[in-house]
Amino acid sequence: MTDYKGIKGWKIRTIAGNPANPKAGEVWFNSSTNTFKTHGVLSAATKAWGSGGNLTTGRNGNKGCSNGSHLDANTFGGSAGVNTEEYNGTSWGSGGNLNTSMTQNTGSGGASDTRACAGDSSGNSNVCETYNGSTWTTSVACLTARGAPFADGTQNSITLSGGSGAQTSTEEWDGTSWTAAQVMNTGKTHGACCGTDRNSFMVVSGVEPGPSYNTTTCQKYDGTSWVTTNPTIKSTDNYYGKACGTTADAIHFGNEENLVAGGYASNTTEEWDGTSWATNSATLSASGGTSNGGASGDAGNGLSIGGYSGIDTAQQTTEEYTRTPAAASTKTITTS
Known about the structure:
By secondary structure, the chain is mainly beta. The chain contains 1 helix and 31 strands. The protein folds into 2 domains: 4-43, no CATH class; 46-324, 6 Propeller (Neuraminidase), CATH 2.120.10.
């Protein structure tokens, strides 16, 4: 008969307490409590949206940046004009004003090393500015004037693409200058995006050319070429969304649906594993969700900032997303 040692490679030991670093699946007898213990029982993973501090000024068409956490972020542009706000994980406070009013602009980098580009500034714009946590400074203009484009990365490594009219043009920022890059497979605007730098970037949904508004498609860029990937789950029109994360691990939320029928904000969340999208159990708590707002953080610590919420009114709502993975724990063995 095979015994425990034959299966696991070690005996059931007796100790006064619990081992400091138990192995997964290990069983021992705790002589202090006269109980058998085991390690490796998984607690359930959790995914949830929770309320954050309200913005001082309601806004939509804005962008947000952070250092991969919802405890340190900013938001700027949009219907609030030049106004910038900074978030400390609890409340929003005033930041430095943009030099040029932007809306439907892009945002890349962290909370204190941000680059804002393009947007509908009295028409399509190629203006770019950088933020050091207190002051915005006008920077090198991008090559093509755009409205509602896509961009992500660090302050010094960015992919910028698409924009009003469903442009296909793409350009890259290397910290010094902008360079024309491979065009998108299909032009897009008014969608979501995520990525880490100019060699790892993804555009999620957004409006495409033509009357069908086939906006569930996604495209991934590796610094050389674009690849069309699996679409988002939503089968209806899918634009004005937000995304957090990387090309291998991301969440997409707060999109506007049914553009042809007038549109409404969705409260659903989808998650990307590098290959396909799946419906996430977490839902935005704002009534009807929020669309056309800012987002920051990563796929495990996201932030939804302002936007529309069922009505065409700029919202002050902030919501924090937290994903806690399943974890091994120590449990008492019983006969039940």
